[in-house]
Design goal:
Outer Surface Protein A, domain 3; 181 residues; 2 helices; four-stranded antiparallel β-sheet; single chain; 2 domains
Length: 181
Amino acid sequence: MSRIGRMPITVPTGVKVDIGQGGVTVKGPKGELHRSFDPSMSIALKENTLIVSRPSDAREHRCLHGLTRSLLANMVQGVSQGFEKNLEIVGVGYRAEKAGEKLVLRVGLSHTLEVAPPKGVSFAVEGVNKIKVIGIDKEAVGETAANLREMRPPDTYKGKGIRYLGEKVRIKPGKAIGKKK
């Protein structure tokens, strides 16, 4: 049996879970999420605990078992606590600022980059070089953070660019100038 799939999900107080034919809706203090799951997976709510079970030990059902449980756990955590990804900007003159809902990046290009947040995601800027991507949908938060990093990935020679907070960037040695023989 799947180790992840068989773990129960505890539903915290203030979070309401509705299981229907079309999927599962989770409502909490931070918002509401809805997702459709494979109809072969059975999802049950018993005494503030969500339990996912599979109909057989077929390969497809084993794969879907852990996936369904992980997605449900992320939905419950998202509406109760939320998710955030932290990015940092490294480089002389590189900075970020907020203009309304949009994020304005100055990252060594001839123009500024304006990024509008997708639905359900917001940006926060701390100082001039720290960005927080905040939201209730883990998938949307991670994708938005990856798209921001992609706009100016860390340079392997100088280390300048946008990176995740705490990310280690291996710096390559520059051209070696040696003596001629």
